[in-house]
Write a structure and sequence with these properties.
UDP-glycosyltransferase, glycosyltransferase, UDP-glycosyltransferase activity, UDP-Glycosyltransferase/glycogen phosphorylase, UDP_glucos_trans, two-stranded parallel ribbon
Length: about 375
């Protein structure tokens, strides 16, 4: 929200949380049903549960906006697999023959209209014609490519592209994304801004052009743009000139590549923390064994008042007022007002006294001079 207007900030801080809470009610109810099946207490008090539950975040600073968190919040990301599927012979051959390839994929959730896809294809062809890139790998995933064939007045060879007859555009239904991004000839990644795509792109130091569609995509796109390794475009206002212009910037401006390499180092170092995440889970299980109590039936039960007490920061245990020193600040403010008022009152009286003294002195002095003259 750093660079957003008032309405966007109001929506982010007030409207969106209310909407999220409303949407979460059903999820919480279903979660409580599942918790009850395994003998775990329901989600009885959101604030109370948050104060003594360990939360593991698949992220890292650099990708994430920095903030001060309690020990109960642990960043263990990016969580990446130790192995990934390799390139098919066809993809490997295509990448080796195209040293400036762009990879285009928008995941399994985001969907683009045929008109939007047509605009992107026009952009690709223009980039290829001007020798800015020399190849495109397009992972269609859930896209219904047959809808593209129904477009009227199209000035691009859609059928040729969809049938993989274009020499510089290769279409595949399912692509080994990590392997494509790790190839030296992949220079740019056009994607929807999903967390997985962003993390894999960072790990392989590939600048991105992002088309956010829903959910966390918008926040991820903002983070990547602030990190200096991506630019974003709106799926509702796609323009060939805008797409071409931004892709040219990403390819020609060395700062995007340098920022991607900077984040790549952090990503590779932090990706080892997934093992710490597993260790933390074992620590919690061990604590539960020692901090738990037996219920009336002899079953095992967590004491929510004492669970993870060693991890809870003092300000949380003290409560909102004491934890934020509001009572201390209030008393300090009262004392300040009392002393300031006393000082002001005393100063006023001293000033008034000396003013009267000075005024009376002048009057008496003038009377004295007058009597001397007479």
């Amino acid at each position: 929200m750093e660079n957003e207007n008032f309405y966007s900030r109001f929506k982010c801080k007030i409207l969106s949380p209310l909407q999220s809470i409303w949407m979460a009610l059903t999820t919480v109810r279903d979660l409580n049903i599942q918790r009850a099946k395994v003998g775990v207490e329901p989600h009885w008090d959101p604030k109370g549960r948050i104060s003594n539950i360990l939360m593991l975040f698949d992220t890292f600073f650099g990708y994430e906006v920095p903030s001060a968190e309690s020990p109960l919040y642990q960043e263990i990301g990016p969580i990446l697999s130790d192995t990934y599927p390799g390139l098919t012979p066809t993809l490997n051959s295509f990448l080796n023959e195209h040293p400036r390839t762009m990879y285009f994929a928008i995941g399994t959730i985001a969907l683009l209209s045929p008109q939007s896809t047509s605009i992107l294809l026009k952009s690709f062809l223009e980039l290829i014609d001007h020798d800015i890139i020399d190849g495109v790998i397009w992972a269609t995933t859930r896209m219904n490519t047959t809808e593209l064939l129904s477009l009227n007045n199209s000035d691009i060879p859609i059928s040729q592209i969809l049938n993989n007859n274009h020499p510089h555009i290769h279409i595949t239904k399912h692509a080994p994304q990590f392997a494509i991004l790790s190839h030296k000839n992949t220079k740019i990644f056009l994607n929807h801004g999903g967390a997985g795509s962003c993390q894999e792109s960072i790990y392989n130091a590939k600048p991105m052009l992002i088309i956010p569609a829903c959910c966390d995509h918008f926040g991820n796109a903002e983070r990547m743009e602030l990190a200096g390794m991506a630019l974003k475009i709106s799926k509702d206002d796609l323009n060939v000139n805008d797409i071409v212009s931004k892709l040219k910037r990403l390819l020609n401006d060395e700062s995007f590549k340098l920022n991607a390499e900077r984040l790549q180092f952090s990503s590779k170092i932090n990706s080892k923390r997934k093992y710490r995440g597993a260790d933390l889970i074992e620590i919690i299980l061990n604590n539960a064994m020692y901090e738990g109590v037996k219920d009336e039936n002899g079953g095992f039960k967590i004491d929510n008042e004492n669970f993870l007490k060693d991890w809870i920061t003092p300000d949380i245990k003290m409560g909102y007022i004491k934890g934020n020193y509001l009572d201390v600040y209030f008393v300090a403010m009262i004392l300040f007002l009392v002393f300031f008022g006393a000082f002001t009152y005393t100063s006023f009286n001293f000033t008034k006294y000396f003013y009267i003294l000075y005024t009376n002195g002048n009057i008496n002095f003038k009377k004295y001079l007058k009597s001397k003259k007479e």
